[in-house]
Design goal:
Oligomer: heterodimer
Structural class of chain A: mainly alpha
Strand content of chain A: under 5%
Distance between the termini of chain A: 15 Å
Strand content of chain B: 5-15%
Strand order of the largest sheet of chain A: 1-2
CATH class of the largest domain in chain B: Alpha Beta
Order of helices and strands of chain A: HHHHEEHEEHHHHHHHHH
CATH architecture of chain A: Orthogonal Bundle
Radius of gyration of chain B: 23 Å
Helix content of chain B: 25-40%
Number of helices of chain A: 14
Largest sheet of chain B: 5 strands, parallel
Number of domains of chain B: 2
Number of domains of chain A: 1
Helix content of chain A: over 70%
Order of helices and strands of chain B: HEHEEHEHEHHEEHEEHEHHEHH
CATH topology of the largest domain in chain B: Rossmann fold
Distance between the termini of chain B: 86 Å
CATH class of chain A: Mainly Alpha
Radius of gyration of chain A: 20 Å
Chain lengths: 345, 304
Amino acid sequence: MSFTVRRYFLILAAAAVLWLAVAGFSLVVGAENIWQLRDSQPDAFNQILSSRLERTLTAALVGAALAASGVAFQALLRNPLAEPYILGVSGGASLGVILATVLLPVSCLTFTIPALGLTLSAAGLAGFLMALVTVGAVYLIAQRHGRLDPYRLILTGVIVNAFFGAAIMLTAALAGDRLRNEIIYWLMGGLGSLRARWGELAVAALVILAGLAVFVYQAAGFNLLSFGEDVAASLGLHVERRRRSAFVVASLLAGVSVSLAGPIGFVGLIVPHLLRMIFGSDHRLLVPLSIFGGAIFLMIGDRLVQLVPYNLVGGLPVGVVTALCGVPFFILLMRRSRTPQGAAP
Amino acid sequence: MIRPHRYIITCLALVLFALAGCRHDSAALPAQPAKPPALRTVVSLVPSVTETLFALGVGDRVVGRSRYCLYPPAALALPVVGDALNVDLERLLVLKPDLIVFHTRVQSADRLTAAGIRPLAPHIETVDDVYAVIDLLGRELGVEPAAKTLTARLTAELAAVREAASGTDPVATLITFPDTIGGGAEIRAVGRGTFLDQMLTLAGGRNVVSTDSYHAASIETVVTWQPEVIIISAPGDIDPGQSDEHYRAAWSRWQSIPAVKSGHVYVLRQPYLTMPGPRMGEAARLLLATLHPDRAAKLENAAK
């Protein structure tokens, strides 16, 4: 499809409007009818609205981060199966969160930074730090003379993920019954919290928005990269530098998402592929669209989960819903397309 | 080029900074009752606590329960607002109870405390814990006399079972649970210091497990324990379709275990067996009837 500035802005404006609509919808639609509450229980109305706003913003940020890093990895690694967790970040971040939860006493699980007036969770911070460590480790293992080979990267990521997966299982096996349940449940990915998490959300938002801005800026370069290294280099792109920065940014986005909401699967795979089928694979459009698309997808997923009545199957984790939707979709997609989506032409 | 040591130092500094900032406040707020205790409402997500509340005569002030709170029958009419892991936050904010009793440890729950809902997460494992919870709920809800009566009744019930079992040879007993997945070579054994261990000791049994708490044990270890009786606690509401025979069959190949060889493998379906709460007298009597039926009959006759 041809790229025109007019079309570009029209599509993005439509996506933004849809984003706003879904976000608004997420605030007013839920298991409790808040219109009724507004007059009868104004306190409960405000508290529920605040909790829904936090959930919605978390879903929007995490969904955007996952979908955008999915697009980046698919372009960077020239692999349609690439997703945000492919380089082992989810395993590292998850292990960080889980170890902090298991090892720290309850009183240390949240702490405040008085100077900033923010309350953060130690588990979230540990997850983020472990994501950083994982990114560093994967980079050091996979690089050779400062060059990153996509295949070595993927292989390293798979192996690192397997290692952390085993470490998580070991932790779960050694933890007591109750903690084990908590760990398994957390691994399914969820967005709710009994604690107001505005502090964490603010920090995560800063990191995520900065990362997304980098991707939007780099989008044209992704187009070149998907033609192959040689072509991209001959067209004047610093392939190594671009690959390295995008790889670090994408991993950070994934790491922040895991720290915030657990490893939510398939958003980073479904959303980019779906958008590519509809709008083509021009990354200048695909990257910002994925940001909106991922946010919308996860906001809707979380609302669906919230609408299930509690006496039926209360508190379904949103990660389960996204993965359950993801697999059939992916199979359908694979059967329909002659060449794998996202692969180089 | 990335210099790893610089990153490591930064990370360590951040971790130290984080630990230094740990807040040592307890999750529960200081008691600042907005309402007098006699009017407070409760949501209980712990089955034994729900039972205790009804036993204290304040069932009408319980406004929500967990999916697993199935006793007494009157509790079934209450709305479900959570389970062991989840809480329906929105429902809870609408119900606005004064107290919520959790099963797990409470991390920070400021969305609840901000709404005036006080979280409690009492540790309930032993007989003493049961009495402590009765006392706590009695004070929180302004029904101390009922709490005293209940504690006295339970103490007497347990004493009667201990009395009935006195003078018997302690039966070497293993208490375990059904294998749910795989049915492999590991079992979950009830260890020392647990509620079931206390009930077993009262009822004239001797726990073959010598370590504390619940843990996994290989079947080979169980063989070395040589239990004379094996009790499989399989609460009926968890898997009602499964037959006792099915649970027993898993043990039949281990004929070197005295309990298996002599046919003393019992499946006990009563949910109260594993519930440290107001029905613990019944739990103790059930174990007595399993281990020493003659003594149990005598106890029953004496009660009549």
